[in-house]
Amino acid sequence: MHFHLTEEQKAIQDAVRGTLADAWPMERLHAFADGADDFDRESWTALMALGLGGLLAPDSGMGLLDAALVCEVAGEAAAAGPLIGQLLAVAAVAQSDNAAKSYLDALTSGERVATLVHGGSDYAPSARAADLFLIVDRNAGVCVVEAADVTIEPVKAADRTRQVSKVVIADGAGQALFSATDPMTARLADAALVLVAADALGGAQKVTDMSVAYAKEREQFGQPIGRFQALKHQLAHMALDVEPARALVWYAAYAWDAQLPDATRAAAMAKAHLCDVYVRATRAAVAAHGGIGYTWEYGLNYWFRRAMADRAWLGSPAEHRARAATLAGW
């Protein structure tokens, strides 16, 4: 295992970061959050133009670690769009041996949009814009459903960066890709956990960086507030909470790619821990910013709300800690 990113991996993150800086600035995020849409075509097209849709295709030469690095930057930018669902849909249909493989080219290019429906849940991000719904259920298997077979009911969600809708799949709809006993079902479910953990890592790092930058600029009593001991300690605790968690995400992605025996447990631990870290970091960031941190215009609320959504999506930290303990034989 490499303990540092390769130059190619750094370049991938830089390219995604630069693209989102141009296509998804704060003004656009504000406009999206205030609007009624659940999908931003311009930023999605810009990301897909980088070739991100094919990251998890078997012939890409890349793997879940590379996909996690992309999702980390997406979380950092609070990007809209069902990126996790798209990546997993490509991985799923590429490995299937039925007619669903015909979706592959359109999914890889981003022409067709896929969103993820977690087994046991009725909600999906960007459902109104989705052409395909990838259902991943450890107990029932994996299938892909056309939008025509899905009833969508928009809901008012807390996370304004990834609007979700309630979805109802028509009885008997969709093409089965993998059964519940097929190893690919568990691998796709684990990959989803790792990618959400990566999104949480990016968001936690973003709000930590925002807090440090604000502490250097905001002055009270004639000096930057970052010189005050209490705030120094708070920022240090944020950094010490976030940075060690990075290795947990990277290892979980590496274990998935290498198909290590503890890959499933590592995915559960990463999802549980990173989502808790993200919530703690956003709460601390709001406190570090004082009154301005609560304002809609400043935008810190986007990451706070996204942290709460990541924590709930695909199962709570308590659920995945219990799974990790069971997998360890505790």
Quick take:
The protein is of the alpha+beta class.
Give an overview of the whole structure.
The strands form three sheets. The chain has a four-stranded mixed sheet, covered by helices on one side. It has a three-stranded antiparallel sheet with strand order 2-6-5, with no helix packed on it. The mean pLDDT is 93. It contains eleven helices and nine strands. Helix content is 55%, strand content 12%. It has a domain at 183-327: Up-down Bundle (Butyryl-CoA Dehydrogenase, subunit A, domain 3), CATH 1.20.140.10. The protein has 330 residues and is of the alpha+beta class. The longest helix has 35 residues, at 183-217. It has helices at 7-23, 26-34, 41-48, 64-77, 83-95, 104-109, 183-217, 229-258, 263-289, 300-312, 317-327, and strands at 114-118, 123-125, 132-137, 141-146, 150-154, 164-169, 175-178, 219-220, 223-224.
Main sheet characteristics: 4 strands, mixed
Roughly what is the average pLDDT, rounded to an integer? 93
Low-confidence stretches: none
Q: What quaternary form is this?
A: single chain
The arrangement of helices and strands along the chain is HHHHHHEEEEEEEHEEHHHH
CATH top level assignment of the domain at 183-327 = Mainly Alpha
Total strand segments: 9
Coarse shape: globular
Helix content: 55-70%
Determine the CATH superfamily of the domain at 183-327. Butyryl-CoA Dehydrogenase, subunit A, domain 3
Structural class of the secondary structure composition? alpha+beta
**What percent of residues are in strands?**
5-15%
For the termini, the CA-CA separation is 27 Å
Radius of gyration: 19 Å
- Strand line-up in the sheet with most strands: 1-3-4-7
* CATH architecture identity of the domain at 183-327: Up-down Bundle
User: Under CATH, the topology of the domain at 183-327 is which?
Assistant: Butyryl-CoA Dehydrogenase, subunit A, domain 3
Number of helices: 11
